[in-house]
UniProtKB/TrEMBL annotation:
Residues 101-314 form the Tyr recombinase domain. Belongs to the 'phage' integrase family. GO terms for molecular function: DNA binding. This is Integron integrase. Pfam families: Phage_int_SAM_4, Phage_integrase. Residues 1-84 form the Core-binding (CB) domain.
Amino acid sequence: MARSPFLEMVRSEIRLRGYSLRTEKTYIHWIKRYIFFHNKQHPAAMGAKEVKSFLSHLANHGNVAINTQKTALNALAFLYNQILQQPLGDLGFQHATRQKSLPCVLSPGEVQAILHQLEGKYRVIFSILYGSGLRISECLRLRVKDIDFSRSCLTVHDSKGHKDRQTLLSSSLFPDLRTLIEQAVDLQQQDNLEGTGPSLPYALDRKYPNAFREPAWMFIFPSTGLCIHPFSHKRCRHHLHESVPRKVLRKATREAGILHKRVNCHTFRHSLATHLLQNGRDIRTVQELLGHKDVSTTQIYTHVVGQHYAGTTSPLDQLTL
């Protein structure tokens, strides 16, 4: 199927600005939907009126979540403000509202019950999500160079908001991590014999042509097969896809007998933050470990703990019933 020259131009502009592949796919998706909604009119021939009409349709007829509306707006604002140089200005658009929801949190016993149902690399993955507070994408992108056994920490590169951060690494994971690293490096050496290796960020393969042979750049959780890099179009080995541990988690949660909670990969990050606060850690420390830009994002966990009013307890606890 022939690709749209216009969308390919948009794709090139997104890559030129260093946006992630996930952002690229999302923006292209919403720009394409916008164009089809208006009967394939060229975006340059439309403007704020058509954008508002599309967003209103999503809100009133699509029943999409508020974050979905925001993503669609961001994509179209990028298209008009950055590429077409036709600023949208104030659309006067009101986002749909939603009730503020609290994150699902597991107890320490429930975390342990799930981990006991996991084996090998999957137990390590979810142990890192809980023990280090990583997002699933951050965990799967970990490379050998990101692990510092001597300081019991790991480094997350180019995280949400294009930020790097260091966080905790449990010493209980050292033996399993060393084994996984050995296996990953062995796989890298096999790939090297065929002239390929791990996928590399940005233009690193041009700056350092032999970087794919260096163990430091190997993914700790590599995919089982090779693929074509979307930017360089070279054969390479990417990290494990996020859908794989998600499937494993669903099975482990059922086998652990946890049927009353909606558990996903992010639940382990929520649980870490909550348990740290319960154990008396200050909120600024938790904010730094999780990589939150604003402490207000971290404050949601004080509500989960149930002691967000300066440790105040219910007077009912003082009664003898």
